[in-house]
């Protein structure tokens, strides 16, 4: 095990085709030519992002569903795949790349966790998830880690660690974690929050609108006099049950929340425009955010998916960001919600119970609401003298071409206060690699913009090549590796050596208590369901 940390300056079904034991251990190498790119510099650079509104007109739910390829439509705008009445984006997994041919791996940061909690809901309900519902990086980033937070004058810390790959003895795993500085509750700047709530008939089930009302009750208790809250609802039409209230008007806010009722169709002409208008009218120098709460079958009054995405993306130029709260089962349009959050400089979370709501809206309020780094991109350069081949576990829909790293017109991810983004690479070391103390395994480069600026900053972090990999990794390494293993197994991923449910269960059994109870429980449920479904788990 090798660890290094350096502070950076400020800033469903059962019967799925799941592989059991006995997978081939050989690591195939993708042979397509690498994208054109010159080796990036390691020094900090500054670039100004080129300045980049959209049309606003209505459409009905059937038109939307057709446009995105649902409800019998032929569009498939989001690349979504129907699973019953739910839909998930179908994304091909990246394979192994030869470091000699393609030394650069580039992707946008991602701290969404919706996939983990949504799959947790499915397992609790007694069903294995469809593979497309499983996003590996969200399983990894949903876990709690003990990495040190940055100091008061630092924006990030970076931690790196190399350990053994549990499913292939000839491979190693590299854990790269970036953590932002958390913010104390009394230090959070004024918040201007507009909840855009779907109150259509499909939301009238206990795990949808009633759960949201309970969740908002937790948030209300955290509000301060300097905060403002508004509520916009959409169903057959658009209403504004709460135009805006100060944070200390808790009873007024609570009454408006408790009065929400689900009924009618989903045809909210102008709903999203109205929400952003209110957010703009009460704009503060602190946090400005629209929070869309829905089960995903929504129509908020813009003609096409392209125009809806363009409208949301345009609002972030005014520092009004979007957070998406997914709710319920049977109607979830996961592919839409994820993309909209990405376009709005926000996060996509799924609330399956009140504990999840408490974590997002209370425990992680600063991370959920306060962006501290925009357009965060990561680029890993492997030293081909040390690494024969590698693959990134997850981030398949966040992958970027190497030249996109310094192209500030290419969108990255957003990190909130106290966020930790973790990436795992599975690598094959060269047999003839020099094992000297000064050898470099990889160089991690991070590029981002401060929350109130368009000039990018870039930093580099070198990770030394370990002379030997110890048997006992850190607790954080074990948690990340187990989360990734569960996700790989549920997806039926290829090239996973001897990975099987029994191996995942063994990994979960070695997890450090406490803090990993959810993950251990999910592994146990998945193993039991796989066994009942006849999926080999030897």
Walk me through what this model shows.
There is one protein chain. This protein is α+β, with helices and mostly antiparallel strands and 538 residues long. The protein folds into 2 domains: 280 residues, Immunoglobulin-like, CATH 2.60.40.1230; 185 residues, von Willebrand factor, type A domain (Rossmann fold, 3-Layer(aba) Sandwich). The chain contains 13 helices and 20 strands. The strands form 4 sheets. Strands 1-6-7-18-15-4 form a 6-stranded antiparallel β-sheet. α11 packs antiparallel against α12 and α12 runs antiparallel to α13. The longest helix has 17 residues. The N terminus is likely disordered.
CATH homologous superfamily annotation of the largest domain? Gamma-adaptin ear (GAE) domain
Spatial sequence of strands, sheet with the most strands: 1-6-7-18-15-4
Examine the secondary-structure arrangement and name the CATH architecture of the largest domain. Sandwich
Shape: globular
Report, as a whole number of angstroms, the end-to-end distance.
29 Å
The number of domains is 2
Provide the CATH topology of the largest domain: Immunoglobulin-like
Radius of gyration: 23 Å
In terms of DSSP E residues, the strand content is 25-35%
Structural class: alpha+beta
Look at the structure and give the mean pLDDT. 84
Residue share in helices?
Answer: 10-25%
Count of runs of 4 or more consecutive helical residues: 13
CATH class type of the largest domain: Mainly Beta
- Biggest β-sheet, characterized? 6 strands, antiparallel
Count of extended strands: 20
Which segments are poorly predicted (pLDDT under 50) over 5 or more consecutive residues? 2-28, 30-79
């Amino acid at each position: 095990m090798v660890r290094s940390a350096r502070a950076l300056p400020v800033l469903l079904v059962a019967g799925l085709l799941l592989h059991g034991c006995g997978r081939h251990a050989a690591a195939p190498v993708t042979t397509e030519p690498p994208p054109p790119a010159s080796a990036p510099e390691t020094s900090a650079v500054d670039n100004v992002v080129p300045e980049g509104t959209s049309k606003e007109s209505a459409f009905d739910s059937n038109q939307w569903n057709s446009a995105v390829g649902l409800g019998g439509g032929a569009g498939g705008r989001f690349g979504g795949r129907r699973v019953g009445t739910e839909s998930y984006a179908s994304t091909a997994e990246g394979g192994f790349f030869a470091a000699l041919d393609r030394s650069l791996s580039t992707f946008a940061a991602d701290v969404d966790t919706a996939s983990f909690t949504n799959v947790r809901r499915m397992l609790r309900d007694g069903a294995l998830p469809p593979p497309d519902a499983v996003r590996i990086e969200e399983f990894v980033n949903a876990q709690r880690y003990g990495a040190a937070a940055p100091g008061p004058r630092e924006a990030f810390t970076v931690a790196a660690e190399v350990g053994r790959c549990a499913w292939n003895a000839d491979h190693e795993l590299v854990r790269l974690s970036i953590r932002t500085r958390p913010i104390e509750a009394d230090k959070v700047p004024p918040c201007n929050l507009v909840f855009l709530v779907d109150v259509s008939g499909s939301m009238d089930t206990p795990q949808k609108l009633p759960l949201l009302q309970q969740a908002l009750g937790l948030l209300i208790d955290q509000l301060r006099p300097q905060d403002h809250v508004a509520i916009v609802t959409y169903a057959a039409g658009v209403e504004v049950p709460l135009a805006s209230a100060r944070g200390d008007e808790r009873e007024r806010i609570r009454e408006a929340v408790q009065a929400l009722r689900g009924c009618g169709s989903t045809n909210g002409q102008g709903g999203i425009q109205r929400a952003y208008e209110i957010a703009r009218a009460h704009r503060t120098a602190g946090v400005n955010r629209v929070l869309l709460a829905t089960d995903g079958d929504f129509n908020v009054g813009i003609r096409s998916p392209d125009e809806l995405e363009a409208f949301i993306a345009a609002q972030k130029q005014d520092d009004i960001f979007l957070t998406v709260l997914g709710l319920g089962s049977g109607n979830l349009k996961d592919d839409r919600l994820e993309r909209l959050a990405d376009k709005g400089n926000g996060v996509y979370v799924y609330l399956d119970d009140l504990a999840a709501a408490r974590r997002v809206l209370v425990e992680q309020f600063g991370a959920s609401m306060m962006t501290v780094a925009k357009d965060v991109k990561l680029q890993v350069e492997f030293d081909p003298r040390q690494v024969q081949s590698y693959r990134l576990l997850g981030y398949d829909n966040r992958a970027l071409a190497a030249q996109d790293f310094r192209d500030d017109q290419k969108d990255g991810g957003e990190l909130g206060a106290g966020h930790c983004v973790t990436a795992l690479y599975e690598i094959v070391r060269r047999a003839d690699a020099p094992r000297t103390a000064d050898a470099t395994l990889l160089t991690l480069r991070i590029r981002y913009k401060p929350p109130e600026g368009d000039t990018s900053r870039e930093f580099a972090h070198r990770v030394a090549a370990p002379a030997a990999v110890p048997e006992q990794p850190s607790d954080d390494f074990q948690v990340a590796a187990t989360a990734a293993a569960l996700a790989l197994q549920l997806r039926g991923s290829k090239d996973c050596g001897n990975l099987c449910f029994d191996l995942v269960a063994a990994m979960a059994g070695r997890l450090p208590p406490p803090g990993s109870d959810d993950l251990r429980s999910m592994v146990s449920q998945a193993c039991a369901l796989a066994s009942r479904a006849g999926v080999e788990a030897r």
